[in-house]
Structure of Glycosyl transferase family 11:
Amino acid sequence: MIIVKPLAGLCNRMRVINSCISLQNRNSNAGEIQMIWEKNELLNCDFSDIFQPIKNIKIIRSHPALTHFLHYHNNRTLPLKSRIKKNILYYSLLNYKLYDNDIILPFRFQEEYWDTAKHNFVINTYSEFYDSQKFNNYQAFKPVDQLQSLINSQVKKFTKTTIGVHIRRTDNIESIKKSTTKLFINALADILEKDSNQLFYLATDDLEVENLLRKRFEKYIITQENKDFRRGTKKGIQDALVDLYTLSRTKKIIGSYYSSFSWTASFLNRIPMQIIE
């Protein structure tokens, strides 16, 4: 059995789920996937608000094994006898093993380990553990009909050569430092110098950046109108999903350094990506 609680934002969660599907497909001991989807300030909507059900993944509210690991495992404030009793139950009798961010790191992308592990998995992480570029199950994610209709409406504005542009800002320090707005502007200007008919679809989490590029490139830029840039609202997450899938329908993506959003958009339809740095 795989008990998974994907953490952080939309694309980090999608990458974790992608890894879980790979684990289920490749390891005969893995069994069914039960997923706990938490609403919080990073992603404040239900799975069903953005995606159709995924075959062989059951959404649950909680699971006692995860509760144990979060509240009893290595908790020195609890009585030793209580911890020993709980650990014997979950480690020895039920054969569960916890994988959080720290525990996953030494085994990340080690296919043989994941393929042959024989315990029940309790996964509480924002990290993928199978390489998405090699093990791509993103076709399992299907937007709900309402959002798919919005995606299709955006794509109708495209030419056959429309290029996607993703500029990551807000709290991503590495992306801000490496993939500067000036570098994006220079890259788009260079492309337009070679082809004055080129069209770009711009997705960003920063309204000021969007306004700057729309002003700078005017008719060459398409964006999602009336977008909610917040991640703490249901509409904000739904609008982010529309951007993600619209990017995935472009010819290629000019993306941001250290951004799971840029990479996930590329994985969805296996389109090429150029990172600006």
About this structure: The chain has two domains: 2-125, 145-276. The beta strands are 2-6, 33-36, 57-60, 96-100, 120-125, 163-167, 200-204, 221-222, 253-256, 273-276. The chain has a mean pLDDT of 94.
